[in-house]
Every structure is written in C-alpha cells, then in structure tokens.
Fold this sequence. Notes:
single chain; alpha+beta; CATH 2.40.50.100; six-stranded antiparallel beta sheet; 5 helices
Amino acid sequence: xxxxxxxxxxxxxxxxxxxxxxxxxxxxxxxxxxxxxxxxxxxxxxxxxxxxxxxxxxxxxxxxxxxxxxxxxxxxxxxxxxxxxxxxxxxxxxxxxxxxxxxxxxxxxxxxxxxxxxxxxxxxxxxxxxxxxxxxxxxxxxxxxxxxxxxxxxxxxxxxxxxxxxxxxxxxxxxxxxxxxx
Length: 182
C-alpha cells in the first residue's frame, strides 16, 4: 500500500487570490504581487520575478518615509471602518528599498485604497523580505473602498497572465543573448 504525500495548500494559496502588476512605472522586471482576500483586504508583496528576489541582492535599508512630509509609518487607523488611514492611488509609493550595491527600488501600492498597516518587522529584519516575501516579508496591507473592491483588479494580471509575461521575458533575453554571440 503506497501512501501519497501531497502537501496541503498554504494559507496564502487557500484564502488569497494572487494578482500581479509587471514592470511597475516602466521599470523592467520590477513586478509586484497583490494578495487579495475574500474580505477585500489586499497585501502588497514583491513578485517572485522582482530583481531583489531574482538577483540574490542583500538589503541595506527599507524606508517608509516617502518625502519630508510623508511617512507611511505615521499611518494610524481606528475603528471598525478603519478611519484615518492614508488614502493611496495605484502609483503611490509605499517604501524604498536600498540594496547593499546601492541599487534602489520603490515599491508601489498597485491598487487604490486605504493603507491599514505597513510591515515594521522588515525594518528590523530585512531578510524576511527575501526569505518569505508572500508571508512575513510583506510590504503593506491596503483596504480598497467597498464600491471599488470588484474593479481594483482591472489593470492587474492573473497568475497565468503573469507567468506568460515572465516566460516571454526570459525567451526574449535568451534570444538577444544568442544573437549577440553570433
């Protein structure tokens, strides 16, 4: 009698739908992942194809201060309807990540909604972003407006569409490498 050892789906795979935004603001491969729960809450993370995760970079610092007058760390929400949270558009910066080679990346909200929280744990332990980007290494949690919750995914890619984009990208890179060598 042979037992099959199938792994149960993770909490993320079971309760969240993955959405993607590729090449954020025209920056090649700077892909973001949005984990959308059935209760409308969205978690912003780096997609697996983001250069920070792909190129084995080390993180020097993470800064939630967007400008002199705006820090995502000052975000305070209260009550059942989460009043007081900063309202974000889809291209609102959430944080800046600086790597040890001084390459800097900006992570954007990707969706419109109210900022519920930022992940302060990654400030103390930046490696969480590299080791567990979809769970403990998330960037922020955003709550879209109720009336917009069904339409926030309009500009986003499904998992299949995202994998298509990544596959085409790697094919183009390989083709350009082979034409350079001939």
